[in-house]
UniProtKB/TrEMBL annotation:
InterPro entries: Glyco_transf_61_cat, Glycosyltransferase_61
Residues passing through the membrane, by range: 20-38
Organism: Oryza nivara
Protein name per the record: Glycosyltransferase 61 catalytic domain-containing protein
Bias (Basic and acidic residues) ranges: 120-135
Lineage of source species: Eukaryota, Viridiplantae, Streptophyta, Embryophyta, Tracheophyta
Length: 612
């Protein structure tokens, strides 16, 4: 063997040995890297038939939750994506996946990572595909068309927030957390701060072409609350209740509500704001108010004065001027409607009579801190008043009654009578009791009528009441009397007696526990007497006694023969209508009480005041 040949072979072996060592190092590094990858990401996909981008995305992030998608005016959409933390083992991951599947009805899950890169305003292909995938999962048919727009259709911004306990490594935290998914009230999975490892929020602002924008607006309109402006179902009153950009054009007696034309269809209603809608004669005296919506904000009446409080519009026409109708048709329903505002309400009145405002000024001031608006005067001045909300007409229940179960605020008749006593500074909220040690006799107020349904033997009735044990006061209620003076007089009494008529409305000033006696004329009027005054008296917490006169006590016996239908079948005459009833049976008779027959009624009234 030649020395030169041995030297060459040795050199070759050394070269091969170096190559082998280098290859061993490379393979070793690869195996170490692969082992580290598998140990740290047991759910990573090593071999996949998917395209490289999908494989990489699946390896990086197996599940994302789409939390929120919104659109603004149909032109923009925001997608908020929350990345679920990775689990330390497959069992935990399987448990989480099962929890996710159980909430599938309330949440939507996206299986691919969204990687978005934006350079100098250019839209990347990844952004387009991400938007398409999210839109496809959401079931939104319009979104792909929007994304397909050629000119910068999608703008993107991304923010990443990481929350982990600083005192422990992330891997240890993942091993300790089971990450149960709990549904909150809104249907979103709830996680504690320790469980929220990574959160990614992506905001897409999408400018839609015209046809797509129309589709988006149509979808938004379908989700809008289409509650009607007005309710016509009540037997006493039609009422409209609305909020938003409300403008009252006084010269045309209309309330205009400016709305989004894409969100609500135009509507228009006419209302007479007075609670006697079945009475054509009465409602003919009430101004008609129009309530309508418009999508043309520029064409809507322009405000001359803006108010920061809601408006309540009503009429004091109709039958007002009669104390019964003043309260049953206006003041009681007005209290029920506006008490919720605690004085922060603007009253708008149609058919205003200045004397009416003067008479009830104290009550109106208690209900509103603002001077009322006279609709007619405001119209003459060309005023347009704007409000955040408005109610047209009043919430009326039965005569002089607020029904707690129907009141929006749970009010009832005793709440109203307490309001009266407070507003008028009436001192008594309980009647005088027999045997209370004061020696004072209970006081009986007898209402004397001056024109119709006269009590012809009033003096005899007064003597009988005094003999029973009452101190008697006689008063004729007059429309011109101050409501404060009338209230103080009635509140000082313990019992009230009168023939069926508007004067009995004054019973509302009596202290609770007092007694009201109604004398009912002949003619089958028991039902109307009970409806107008008997039921309200009970609702006010009063003791109620109804005395129904006999034919011999009525002046009708001197006008009609004994066998006339007015005596044999008086209720049959009611079918001729209320006008006939009022003229013949109410205003057409006077009363002479049979004192002997009436005395037990007086005794019962006194007995009601016995100490309890």
């Amino acid at each position: 063997m030649k020395p030169g040949g041995s030297s060459g072979r040795l050199h070759a072996l050394r070269f091969e040995s170096q190559r082998f060592r280098l290859l061993t190092i490379v393979v070793g590094c690869f195996l170490i890297s692969l082992t580290f990858l598998l140990s740290s990401r047991p759910d990573a996909t090593v071999f996949s038939t998917l395209n490289p981008r999908e494989s990489l995305e699946d390896a990086r992030m197996p599940a994302m939750k789409m939390l929120h998608r919104s659109s603004s005016a149909g032109l923009t959409r925001d997608f908020h994506v929350d990345i679920l933390p990775q689990q330390g083992d497959r069992d935990t991951h399987a448990h989480l996946q099962q929890s996710v599947d159980q909430t599938a009805e309330k949440t939507e899950w996206v299986k691919d990572t969204v990687i978005i890169q934006e350079v100098a305003g250019e839209r990347s292909e990844e952004a387009e595909e991400a938007a398409e995938r999210v839109a496809a999962d959401s079931g939104d048919e319009a979104a792909p068309a929007v994304v397909a727009d050629e000119d910068n259709a999608v703008k993107t911004t991304a923010t990443v927030a990481t929350t982990a306990r600083p005192d422990q490594p992330l891997v240890e935290e993942k091993k300790k957390q089971q990450l149960p998914v709990k549904l909150q009230d809104a249907g979103e999975p709830a996680r504690t701060p320790e469980q929220t490892v990574t959160s990614l929020q992506l905001n897409f602002e999408i400018w839609a072409p015209t046809n797509v924008a129309d589709n988006v607006r149509a979808m938004n309109a379908d989700s809008v609350d289409r509650r009607p402006l007005c309710d016509f179902s009540d037997f006493r009153t039609d009422i409209c209740d609305f909020s938003g950009d409300v403008r009252m054009a006084a010269n045309t007696s209309e309330f205009v509500v400016v709305v989004d034309p894409a969100a609500a269809a135009a509507a228009s209603h006419k209302v007479r704001p007075y609670p006697r809608k079945g009475d054509a004669t009465c409602m003919g005296r009430v101004t008609e108010i129009t309530v309508r919506t418009t999508g043309d904000a520029a064409g809507a009446p322009r405000c001359t004065r803006a108010h920061g409080v809601p408006a309540v519009a009503f009429s004091i026409g109709g039958y007002t001027g009669n104390i019964f109708h003043d309260f049953s048709d206006v003041i009681v329903p007005l209290y029920n409607t506006v008490q919720r505002y605690r004085g922060g309400v603007q009253l708008v009145m149609a058919n205003v009579a200045s004397w009416w405002l003067v008479k009830y000024d104290k009550l109106l001031r208690e209900l509103s801190r603002h001077a009322p608006i006279d609709l007619a005067k405001a119209g003459a001045a060309g005023e347009v008043h704007c409000f955040p909300s408005a109610v047209v007409s009043l919430r009326a229940h039965r005569e002089l009654i607020i029904e707690r179960e129907r009141s929006l605020d749970g009010l009832a008749t005793p709440d109203f009578t307490r309001f009266l006593r407070r507003a008028l500074s009436l001192p008594r909220d309980a009647p005088t009791r027999l045997g209370d040690g004061t020696g004072r006799r209970p006081r009986l107020l007898v209402i004397s009528r001056g024109r119709t349904r006269l009590l012809l033997n009033l003096d005899a009735v007064v003597r009988a009441a005094e003999e029973v044990g009452f101190e008697v006061v006689v008063n004729e209620s007059d429309v011109g009397n101050s409501i404060e003076q009338v209230g103080k007089l009635i509140n000082s009494c313990d019992a009230l007696l009168g023939v069926h008529g508007a004067g009995l409305t004054n019973m509302m000033f009596l202290p609770p526990g007092a007694t009201m006696v109604q004398v009912v004329p002949w003619g089958g009027l028991q039902w109307i007497a009970r409806m107008d005054y008997g039921e309200p008296a009970a609702a006010m917490g009063l003791n109620y006694i109804q005395y129904e006169i006999a034919v011999t006590e009525s002046s009708l016996k001197d006008k009609y023969p004994a066998g006339d239908e007015i005596f044999t079948n008086p209720t049959g005459l009611h079918k001729r209508g209320f006008a006939f009833m009022k003229q013949t049976l109410m205003d057409g008779q006077d009363i002479t009480i049979d004192v002997t027959r009436f005395r037990p009624v007086l005794q019962q009234a006194l007995h009601n005041l016995a100490a309890k």
